[in-house]
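User:
I study polymers; will you set down one protein's sequence and backbone structure tokens?

Assistant:
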Amino acid sequence: MHLLAENALWETFSEFVTPDGNIINARGETEIIINKNDIENKSWVMLNNSRIENFYSITKISKTKYSFISENPSLGTQRGTFSIDRNTIFSRFQIENSDMNGFEVIIRNNDVCKAYGALYNNDELINSWSANMNRRGTAHNKAYTVHTLLNRG
């Protein structure tokens, strides 16, 4: 089972590393909400006393391929793909209207995910990161819950 396989709430602990080796620690949260072939990933991280939010809108293309678009206030609009191999997600992305691009690999083992990635400007490394994600519970599809409650008669 991979990160996007079920509704879940994850606590995250990350390290961002600059090209010269400076390490910045961060903590945050990721909420995965599945609605048929559409998935939402609502994430935030506290980095240098600033809250950075990402909202991913993900579309399942096939069992092993997803496409996504994400709005990141500090980078802009990010578009990419997720390729799935059992418990592992391989992600590639491009930041619109820029030369920035990157990748991320997320490996799930039961209630723990490990993520590793990097962001580049053309071929020049901007930063890399690693994250430990611990499942805290189940995210709730609020639209489904409200619809279900309203139609119970």
Q: What stands out?
A: The chain is about 5% helix and 70% strand.
